[in-house]
Amino acid sequence: MYSDWASLQDEIQFDKANLSVLHKFSDSVGKEVACSVVRHISSNLSLANSTPNPSNLDTHAEVKWTMEVLCYGLSLPLDQLDTIKDCVNVYCEWLSALTSPKLPVPCPITDEPNPYAQDMLHHLLNLFMPRHGAGADLVKRQALLCHRVLRTIESVAKESAMLTRETWETLLKFLLAANNSLLSPPTEKEDTGLSSYDIGDHLCERVLSVLFELWLLACQKCFPSPSLWKTFRKMCIYWRHHEALISQWHRVNHALTARLLKFMFGPDYPELVISEDEGGLLVPSDMTNDCISQSWFRFLHVIQNPVDLAKPELISQTPMFLRLALESEDVIDPRQHECLAKLPQIFYKAMRGVSIMVNAFLGIAQDVKEENMLTSLSLQTPSGRQSIMGPPTPPGQRKAGRPLAAITAPLTQRGSKASSVASSKSTTPAPQCLPGLLSLDSRLPLAPNRPKCNSILHLFGPWLFDASLANVKILPGHKNAGQTHRRTNSLIDHSRPTSLAIDMSPEKTAHCDNSYEQGRAEACGTLCRLFCAHKTGEEILPAYYSRFYFALCYGLQTKENMSGPVLSNILFNSCDLLRVDLAGVQILVPHVLNALELVLQDLTPKFRLCEQIPSVELRKACVHLLLSMLCLPLHFKDLEIKDILAGEAIAEHSVSFISLKPRITELLLNALQIETDSTNTQMLLGGLMLLVQDMALCEEAEQTTVQPPQDDTDHTVHADVSEESIASNISTDSSYTESSYHRLHTTSHDNDSAYGLFGHATSLVCTRLMASWRAELSTAIAAMELLSGLAKVKISPPNLLMCKRTVKWICDFIVNQCSRPTLYHSRDLHSMIVAAFKCLTLWLVEHSRLLYDKECLHNVLEVVELGISGSKSQNKASDPPKFKGDKVFQPASMRVKDAAEAVLTCIVDQVGAFPPPCGPESLFSLLDEKSLLKYAKGTGLPEQGSPFRYFVLDNSIIVGLLEQPLGNYEDPLPTVTALIRGPFGRHAWTMQLRHSPRLPNKLSSSKSLLADPGRPVPMDNLGVKHGVKHKHFPDSVDKVPHTLADKSIPSLDTLVTDVKTQSELDKLKRQIEHQTQFETNISRRSQLEASRRPFPNPATECKAPKLCQEFQTARLFLSHYGFLSLEALREPSNSSVPPALLMLDTSNTGLFAEVEQLDMVPCRDSDTVHVFYVKAGQKMPQDIVANVSSRKSVQPQFLQFLHSLGWPVDIGKHAGWTGHVASSWKIMDQDDVSDEDYPRGTGGSVYDGRQQVLYWADVMSEVAFVVPSTETYNRYLADPQGDKSPQFNKRGASGSVTLTKPRSLTLESLDKLRPDRESTGEGPLMRSRRGRQPLMVGPDTKVFVVWLESFEDHENFPIGDLLGATCTGLDHYTTSSSVALPRQPEKDVFIIFIHALQNGLFRIHLHGQTGKLTMAIPLVNGMVVSRRCLGNLVRQTAINICKRKRLESELYQPPHVRRKVKIQEIVKNYHMKMDAPDFYTALFHDVAKE
Questions:
Q1: What is the pLDDT of residues 1272-1314, one digit of tens each?
Q2: In terms of Cα–Cα distance, which of 1164, 1185, 1165 is closest to 1174?
Q3: How far is CA 1052 from the centre of its chain?
Q4: Which helix or strand (DSSP H or E) is residue 1345 part of?
Q5: Which one of 91, 92, 371, 695 has the fewest CB atoms closer than 10 angstroms to its CB?
Q6: Which letter, b or e, does each residue of 1125-1162 get, where b requires 16 or more Cβ atoms within 10 Å of its Cβ?
Q7: pTM score, two decimals?
């Protein structure tokens, strides 16, 4: 910079202007003259006399002679301190001529102050000359006089307006000479400070501060010449063994940097805060911008390369050090001087100041006072400590809320004492931490308009690169590496090796000096922060890349050359290293992995950490790095990584990415095994999910099948599983083998396959969940999310044994949590249980064959019973079972009970039957009253009333019965069609009363069984006829003796013998004979006629009755199923609960509207995710939503990602959630829509909710992925307060057929009741009528997925502007009242940012995760994922975010509970209260028929 300018160093050092003519006389003569003259002059000063007289020195000669005497007086020994003091007083008063002259100042000086001021400055230099042999007290008094001179000079420089350039140059030369005389000699005494015998120790800080302050002032008033700047730089080399030089250097640098940032980047740029005592007022307010920039650059290089501070051999190569070495008997080598022992602290302080400036340019807000205080804390060396501990907190990463003054613990309690390699490998406890600790979570964002990395590296790169390798043992193969230009010391030969080509002498390469590791660690951390600030698409020079990677390879050493502070500082500041598109950064992966293994394998680090880095935060940073490299092995596969630290003798010393896969997997599992911090554990769980998912999808793509380990004891299929039942299940599942739990494989050591890793992951997570995580809510929820995700991973072949064990573990977890004492039961505990029940549901649905195992089924049903009732029927197998009626109903909470009921219903309805025949879009039957009546017998719909009868069972199920047979049934059998609406959905069943089975073969049909079978053929063989004489009484009756009473009745014999009755008896006898003859003739004639007639007789033959065409099937249904009884109709006493069976009033048309609203309450949780695409630099919402209009405007990976989220569905034909309540859960368009009706070539705007959305559903939740377009956004702008569905007309305006939905879930007549609702398109789902209990749907969680072309755009994403365009219809409905809520605040919006890296992977950034339950996995902030699993993980994370918000909300009710509440509301409003006779009467009464 100043190569063409001459230095003034020799002129200053050998200047004779401070010598007086009295020096040519003897000391006694000079002393006598000086004391006499000075005493007389000082007596007339204003300090000594309140009324001073004017000076009697009238001519220039008189003044010159007097100044010669004063010059000599300033050089007197300290025993003449009074005379010296008088000289100082005289000159200080005479210097007032430059500002406001006082009366005692001679007139010649007042007339021409500048020449005399220059001479006085030369003379005052004698005061700053050290007096050897003087006592400490005299030296202290000398220092006080120097302080007064400095104050006077400082005042004159600031206040005077008449200083000429010559005077300014003389002033600066005086300060340089004073500093040189005081600071260039090495400190000889151990006692420093106020008790020192060295005047330099007393004045070091002050004289340097005045030099830098006045030099900076001169830059504004009279900019120093290049020769002075060069002299300043060269002379600073002699003072570098003083710590104060670095302090003052940075004091000015930071003040100038703060001003520089304001006019370079604007007032909104993050401020470098500098207080007044730290130099906040150093820079004059009226200093021009150009002057500031020129001064800043020159001051920055005034001490040349600060890395030379780490080289004692350079610092000691000054004339004063060499002269002392020649004169002293103790010092042989100048490098051994005791004052150089502070060089490690000075070096660290220098790099710390450079780091502050780099951070300021990166846009990290800092407070210099706080930074300096923390630096001082780190520099304090406790007794017994051999080296300085690690650097303090980098700005923007410090935990808030800890006052810096509250430092009460002694520093001797911190850290380990050894700094050698041996101590770095010993297991020492983690050091206790000081205030201002590092915290990754509190990192401040970098400024968006920060300068490029190249620009900052041009300024500070050579220093940082050199410092990062300070005193490092360089391998012989790297002797000539990095021969790039660097700033060199002009006093040293320019041909010496550069920073990378370190001296290869035997003593330098034989060992690694760790005494300077503190400053080296700061430099490495600064470099890491700088390179991690790389912007998307930004270019960095290859030379910088190579030097950075070279420095990091040495800094990440974990063996003999390891430095704990350097390693920990690199890891902590390199969280983004592998995810910011640094060219060739993959070369560091093996070295980073070695360091991660050293940190994550043990909770207590085996090396010395930086003082300000807690072990937990270091592990968190390592977890971030680990999450960045999980996908690298399967992404780059066999690509080799060259080891740049390998020696020249090793020709091929490289590893491939795929070879790192076992180490990465093992490290992740081991870290998860020992981690105790909740946040770190959740991050590792997310990484484990990514690893398993990526490996499974990779094997599926490559069609790799792994043979599971065979167990000879588990080779038989379960006895209860028939071949038919297995075939009816999922065909991809292999045969399930029965095994007791103790025989299951606990872990699989084959982690190279998805099969083995799946088993190991489930075993590890379940084990830790039971042992350590059950008391931590967020960790337990994350574990459940991981297990839920693992349940959906497709492993070939499926690891059914581990699946069975996982279900057992989940059941045990629920039992354990429910069994905890009442004191521990809280909402958090119940949230864990609810999450466990939901996880259990997913495992049973995804692996339905588990329920074929008796033991597994018993465990599941037992835990469901525990959840519903609060206790088990059998605590032990030997206990007698306790029946339901005998147990006390005490569930852990109603939330737990509802979750257990959901599991039980899922087992009955969905396990083995999901997805249903109509697809996963709806768990309901798609049939409703309107669609059923279309197929009922008849020509039309009824005009009055409804053919359905509605009954309510147990106050929870509404049964709509249609007694008319459907048109597809021709048999005149009792038929009833039932629409069953319960808490878990709507189901349609048609039932017939049959007395004969429905045969499946073709030879017989149901119709033939209803026809007349005909008379049986008569048989000729009538059998043997026996003549039997029938008796009216038994024979023994005559043997019974008669009584007197018997004899009172006359016998028949007496009547025959009676003469009076004889004639009558004869007459009777004739009549009997006549009748007998008549009947015989009739019988004979009848037999003759019968023999002549055909057989059978048509007149007398029995005929079958006509088939009945009308039945009271509703009554039959209720009766046959046991619902119809007197007990069911009786209302419970002293209770508001309605009877078990009741009838609803169908004459009230409001019933059908309520039933329609019930159908609009789904049985699953419904979520909406809005997807945006942001091109580089976009900030306006109009531009963002316009990107998806064309395929050419988006990256191809974006469209692939969209289709991996879900499958496209047509809004008009979709029966599930569509993203808006007005168009969800009903089918509106029965016509087929051709592909021509949809726009082509879009970038995703076709899924904006007008015609199509992307949809995904499982048994528990459904998600609609909506891509807002320009049309939907413009609609929002036209009506910001509207709450309408985004659907649009399918055809043109003329003869248009709109997609406005008819009320397809109710009767035709109901459409006339709500024309206003139909016209506005508002959804009636959540708004209940006045006075009724609202449905508590919980929070309407906003989840955005934003695809970024430039990662930095996530800081400028217009959340608030786009929030209104993402209306789902739930925004204006509250869960506790009918009052509309305000718009959701931006901070409550969850955003998943996705950025495509140049290597083909994708970086994830999460926004909005605040609270203990919002860190949903599997995606973690900063994770790098592969393309094959991106869609799955984004979808799972979005669902889990919504689940966690629902768990956290106190207003949320599960869907089946909301349906149950709605049913109870319907019962309350439309219950027909009647007694049993009236009910039976109404039951026998026919309903209206068409």
A1: 888 888 877 665 566 644 433 333 333 333 333 333 333 333 3
A2: 1185
A3: 116
A4: strand 1343-1348
A5: 92
A6: eeebbeeeeeeeebbbbbbbebeeeebbbbbbbbbbbb
A7: 0.83
